[in-house]
Design goal:
about 725 residues, alpha+beta, four-stranded antiparallel sheet, 18 strands, globular, YfhO family protein, transmembrane helix, membrane, transmembrane
């Protein structure tokens, strides 16, 4: 019997893997770039490449001075700097010469992980292999995951793929103890350390749901286990998120919108009632009114109308001890609350990002009800299922009347498919493979039809370069050793890749620049220097600001920032073009024209003398000599000082976390120059000393210590569990 169960388990995994693999590959037949667009191009690939390069060369990236506003990687969170799972992905990207191929492999891998994880999760509450396969097959095609996270917002895909595994291992740990604590920790750590807050929110939801349920049931042994693992994972959460939270609390970041609602990326709750129609567009608004995506991003699954066949008179919620009802209720409450919440709640924005978790909850709830309740197949239930489907068709038609016939065709197909599924489940329960065949047919047919009609996810395609060789060819326009580079103006994806890069592609090109991706950034830097978009675009007019003289230091800002090369791209509206022509007409003093083409110019400084992060100015009454300059540390020899104190300015942003490390030193970190450049006040008592200024993100060292303590606790716990097993 046990051997038979293992065989069924293995076959189930194979079937789910095959179905998910097929549905994941289908989009590529219509658009080979499907898994390589928008933020995967702009952010993830370059970010992974830079992290992979650093790790391969034995470096642990925390602060990148050249990236300026985007260079505080610990604060950014989603770099996954302390996440071994992200390390593996990053090194893979760095070592793979084709980014289209590496992105596609990564995305499909995590879709498979999502499907198999869901299959494993459902095994913890039902022995029905058909339902296990059904859940594992359909969850990866929840449309927000398939169209948005899988194509663009890849960290969203990663944490969503890990969540079923966390839930499964958590339930196994509560039921069997043993060494599952190690699996819970590894999966939970990997999910939290990815840095995508929504995944962490739902880990907390699962833990809180279980905590409350076991408290109410007075199941003290399980309650204690939930409490202990919650404390351990709380340590990881603090370590990952508190550095960013404390940095933002200093009031310097660009993400501080408070509580507000502009309906951007806010789904309408009514869309849930036709979320089983595969081509229903739903209602997701943008800033300018109307739908932001022409894709069925609110589609959950064609299986939803199967609820019509569940007999609710036989209460499926009886005898639910040892089930995960508390966890499921918590997931449902949190996912629905956040999905339909105000569009801006501090750092939490874009409510639609929670929609996949609504789909996850709905699907698991249906599987739960099917496993606990009784299914009835009769004329009344058939009519009820048809009524539900017809209502969904009507809602879809009322939104887009021109697609009415298409909606009706889908409705008929879903009606027939679900009725055949239920018939087989009730009347031919022994014909398991027929049930599976219907799932396969439904998944493949609907996925093909979706991508036949809507072959792209409607996220932006920057037509990014696909190979490292192509990127290096583009960066050759800057010549050898361009130093610290400033990019002004926006590129045109259809024509500009021959002479410039975009967003995190600058990392791949090994160009030191602040024109890289950050969704957060340093607010006053961004405002002063006219940063326009999270992707790293600075306005053409930023060049005017660079050559403005700072009133305090009487130096040009371009010199305060240690800029060595400037590329100005001809782009934008009529005023931008007019300003481009005006700015590029004359080369500033101390600079020379390196290259001029029809769509861009490149200026280079006559003499490159300062490394980014160096001392760029000091008051007249002080003489300092720079001894060391690394990304996190600068050492200054204080040689002379007239008066009580002197001022020193460095070409690095004044992130919270800089401090003078010398014991007994009277010098201090001062208010930043222009609101963002690091400034120190040197005290006369420190003359003759070498002052060490060092950067450590707030709470970072404590966080690392917490992680280390967690690892020790989990290791001891795991060893103890094994010893108990074999004693």
């Amino acid at each position: 019997m046990q051997k038979s169960n293992r065989i069924n388990h293995f076959i189930g995994i194979l079937i789910v893997t095959l179905i998910v693999l097929i549905t994941a590959v289908i989009p590529l037949f219509f658009n080979e770039h499907y898994y390589f667009i928008d933020d995967t191009q702009n952010g993830a690939i370059g970010q992974w490449f830079e992290l992979g390069k650093s790790l391969v060369h034995g470096k642990f990236p925390i602060l990148n001075l050249s990236a300026q506003s985007a260079g505080n990687y610990i604060m950014e969170g989603q770099w996954g700097v302390v996440n071994p799972l992200t390390w593996v992905v990053a090194i893979f990207v760095y070592l793979t010469p084709n980014f289209l191929i590496s992105a596609t492999i990564i995305k499909i891998f995590f879709l498979l992980l999502l499907g198999v994880g869901t299959f494993e999760l459902t095994r913890t509450f039902t022995k029905d292999v058909k339902l296990q396969i059904l859940a594992g097959a359909i969850l990866p095609t929840v449309a927000f995951t398939a169209y948005i996270d899988a194509s663009s917002w890849v960290t969203g895909l990663i944490v969503f793929a890990l969540l079923p595994w966390f839930w499964w291992s958590f339930r196994m740990f509560l039921k069997y103890q043993k060494a599952y604590i190690f699996v819970v920790f590894v999966v939970g750590y990997s999910l939290i350390a990815t840095g995508y807050v929504y995944g962490t929110i739902y880990v907390v939801s699962i833990l809180v749901g279980s905590f409350i349920q076991n408290l109410l049931e007075k199941n003290w042994s399980v309650f204690l286990r939930v409490t202990l693992i919650s404390i351990v994972l709380a340590g990881v959460t603090f370590a990952i998120y508190l550095p960013g939270i404390l940095t933002s609390a200093a009031g310097i970041t660009a993400r501080d919108s408070g509580l507000s609602n502009n309906d951007f990326m806010s789904p309408n709750m009514s869309s849930l009632f036709n979320s089983f129609i595969p081509n229903a567009l739903g209602d997701v608004t943008n800033y300018w009114g109307g739908d932001i995506w022409g894709a069925p991003v609110l589609y959950i699954s064609w299986i939803l109308p199967i609820v019509a066949f569940i007999d609710f008179k036989r209460n499926p919620f009886t005898n639910i001890k040892n089930s995960f009802t508390g966890e499921l209720i918590a997931m449902a409450v949190v996912s629905i609350f956040l999905t339909f919440a105000p569009s801006e709640m501090g750092p939490i924005r874009f409510p639609i990002r929670n929609y996949s978790y609504v789909g996850f909850t709905v699907i698991i709830l249906i599987i739960f009800l099917l496993s606990k309740g009784k299914i009835k197949f009769n004329k009344t239930r058939i009519i009820l299922s048809g009524t539900i489907i017809l209502f969904g068709v009507y809602l879809s038609w009322s939104q887009v009347p021109g697609n009415g016939l298409s909606f009706l065709k889908y409705g008929i197909f879903i009606f027939l498919l679900i009725n055949m599924l239920v018939f087989v489940a009730v009347k031919r329960s022994e014909r398991r493979m027929l049930f599976v065949a219907l799932i396969v047919m439904g998944q493949i047919f609907i996925t093909i039809q979706q991508h036949k009609q809507l072959s792209v996810s409607t996220m932006g395609d920057q037509q990014s370069l696909q190979t490292y060789t192509a990127v290096k060819k583009t960066t050759s326009v800057f010549g050898k050793n361009p130093g610290n580079v400033w990019i002004a103006g926006s590129m045109n994806p259809s024509s500009s890749w021959k002479y410039t890069l975009y967003s995190n592609y600058w990392y791949i090109g090994s160009i030191k620049t602040g024109a890289v991706y950050t969704p957060i950034g340093y607010a006053k830097y961004n405002t002063d220097l006219k940063r326009q978009w999270a992707q790293g675009t600075f306005a053409i007019q930023s060049v005017d600001r660079l050559f403005t003289v700072d009133k305090t230091t009487h130096m040009r800002i371009v010199d305060l920032l240690s800029i060595d090369t400037i590329q100005i791209i001809k782009s934008g509206d009529k005023q931008d073009i007019k300003d481009y022509n005006r700015i590029t007409k004359t080369t500033p003093t101390g600079w020379h024209l390196y290259k001029k083409e029809s769509q861009y110019v490149i200026w280079k400084k006559d003499k490159i003398t300062k490394k980014v992060g160096s001392v760029v100015w000091h008051s007249n009454n002080i003489s300092v000599r720079q001894v060391v300059n690394t990304s996190r540390t600068i050492k200054l020899k204080i040689e002379k000082l007239r008066g009580k104190s002197g001022k020193v300015v460095l070409s690095r942003l004044s992130w919270p976390g800089y401090e003078i490390k010398n014991s007994g030193a009277k010098s201090r970190i001062s208010t930043p120059l222009r609101g963002y450049l690091l400034k120190t006040i040197i005290n006369k008592n420190d003359v003759g000393k070498t002052i060490t200024i060092h950067f450590t993100p707030p709470f970072f060292n404590i966080g690392i210590m917490l992680i280390f303590i967690d690892i020790v606790i989990i290791t001891v716990w795991t060893i103890f569990s094994f010893r108990r097993k074999f004693m």
